[in-house]
Amino acid sequence: MKFYESQGAPNPRRVKIFLAEKGIDVPSVDVSLAKGENRSDEYTARNPFGQVPLLELDDGTCIAESVAICRYFEETHPEPPLFGTDAADRALVEMWNRRAEHALFLNYAYFFQNTHHFFKGRMPQVPEYGEVAKNRLPKVWEILDRELAESEFLAGDRYTIADITAQCGFDFFGR
Q1: Which pLDDT does position 175 carry in this prediction?
Q2: What 3-state DSSP class applies to 59?
Q3: Are 163 and 153 a contacting pair, CB within 8 Å?
Q4: How far is residue 152 from each of residues 52, 114, 125, 144, 147, measured CA to CA in Å?
Q5: What is the b/e burial string over 139-161, where b = at least 16 CB atoms within 10 angstroms of the residue's CB?
Q6: Contacts from 123-129 at CB under 8 Å and sequence distance 24+?
Q7: What is the pTM of this model?
Q8: How far, in Å, CA of 9 to CA of 33, rounded?
Q9: Which of 20, 53, 56, 134 fits a 20 to 30 Å CA distance from 67?
Q10: CA-CA distances (angstroms) from residue 7 to 65, 154, 159?
C-alpha cells in the first residue's frame, strides 16, 4: 500500500491526520505539485484527475479523494470511530463534515485558486470570484464560532472527520 501526497497540501494532510488518529502508518510518496508531477502520465494513469491524495492498495486498486480514502480506513480500522457510531451520529458527522468542506474549505480553496500566483497559468483564474468566495467566509466563521462555543467538537462529544476537515481548512488558509 502507498499513499501519494504533496507536502503542505490540505487534502493529503486531512488523510494524514485521520491516519494518525487511527494509529495507522502507511508508506508515502511525495508528489511535487510545483514540478507538475501530478500531471505526469505515470501519475494520471493512477488518477486521471491528477489530484492528491491517492491511496494505492496492494492489489493495484487506486482510491482518490481524501474523504473516500478516510472512509476506506474507517471500514478497515473502525476504532476510534471518526465517522460516527450509529445512524444518527453518522448523519451528524456527515452533515458537519459537508458543511466544513463546502462552506469553509471550498470557499478558502476558491479564493486561493483564483487569486494566488501558484495557480497562474495552471488553471483559469477569476480574481473576482476569488473575492466572492473570500467574502463568504466571515459568515461561515460566525456559524462555526457559535457551534464551537457550545461544544468542543463540531459533531458531538468527540473528534471526528468534521473537525479534521475544519482544522485543515483553518490551518492551510488561515483566518
Answers
A1: 52
A2: coil
A3: yes
A4: 30, 33, 37, 11, 9
A5: ebeeebeeeeeeeebbbbeebbb
A6: none
A7: 0.91
A8: 9
A9: 134
A10: 16, 26, 24
